[in-house]
What we know:
Blueprint: E1 27-29, E2 32-34, H1 38-64, H2 68-75, H3 77-91, H4 97-108, E3 117-120, H5 125-130, E4 146-149, E5 154-158, H6 167-176, H7 178-183, E6 186-190, H8 203-209, E7 214-217, E8 219-222, H9 225-232, H10 234-238, H11 243-257, E9 264-266, E10 274-277, E11 289-294, H12 301-309, E12 315-319, E13 328-335, E14 341-350, E15 367-368, H13 375-389
Parallel strand pairs: 5-6, 6-11, 11-12, 12-15
Antiparallel strand pairs: 1-2, 3-14, 4-5, 7-10, 8-9, 8-14, 13-14
Helix pairs in contact: 1-3, 1-4, 3-4
Amino acid sequence: MIGSRTFTRFTWGLSMRRSTFLSLLLLTGFGAIVAPSPSLAAAASVAENCKRDLAYLPDFLIANDTGAADNRRVRGEAAIAAAQDKAMREASAATSEEACRVIIQAYLGAWRDGHLAVVPGDWSPAKQAAEAPKGDAPAPATPKARIEWLSEKTVLLSFPTFFASAAEDIVKMMADNRKRLERTPNWIIDVRDNNGGDDGTYAPITDAVIGNPYFIAGVEFLSTPANIEATAGLCDFYAPGDKNCIAALERLVTAMRAVPPGTYAPHPSLGDTVTRIDPDEPRRKRPARVAVLTDRACGSSCEQFLLAMKQAWNVKLFGRRTTGALDYSNLRPHKLPSGKRLILYATSRSKRLPHLPVDAVGVLPDVFLPPPADDAARTKEIDTVRALIEQR
């Protein structure tokens, strides 16, 4: 995650598993041309490059980002133009690359709240992992899934992330506790503050809960030269050497090249408007009652998880509406003209559109709980839901 909260849904083109300088100016004075000091020249270079990237973005987004045209129509061309004018004025005073990145990210927020971000030009998940602290230096920890039995009848399962880095822990936790989970009739699943990630990560949870057939919407990818190029090189960017990634993207790139530029290619394995998912183990013992706690911070793959869970006969959602960052996803990197920054933008759209948008309002709970005033009130939400699910 870079800067402000920006949800990412990197799925190697697989949306659902079943089971992130212009030339120097010369300053004039007293009728003479004076070479700028190095610090002034550097600041001028930052500002000009920042404005250059801002000027480039509207046309690029409209041509390549799957949500840009819809977002501009809904939010209004005047509002987006005003945001760009404001960003241009602020960019004129930018003196650092980070200051420029913050300005551009704020401008992108005028287009869409999620799945649209700007990062440093040399950033990549692979580079970030390679530069992680070594030896005794503590590395940033992936938030851990947790399990806690509140009583013999009720268990609390907390999932703060669905990023792929959490997948192994989730698989192990669900497998190690399977027998006791199957004896526990009431589950509370807490995905408050879940920052999304990869759809395949939550498969062990949906497999354990959903015993009836359910449906997931297909996705389609916008075919443009920039999108094809970015998709073809995505494995080198996100998962160097990952053979599964390479195989999946080869199929996707072939599909994108098979349609005219500017049109949409169906997903190679999720091309239908909706796909029926049948449980792998129909006779598996599943919980009688499941309460899923959610809030405004749940976005992207967290929202996709909720759309699946809502279709289970034994599930109710409690809390508040989610972020609304799901309709346009499968982010790809594109270097901006300055070379100092990358734009991460959406190349797919859900086939739920236009009939069932999520970005507009998020995923709504079945039972509304008011926002907690503090940590104590947040913890109390679990007690409230437990009392309801235990019918007391």
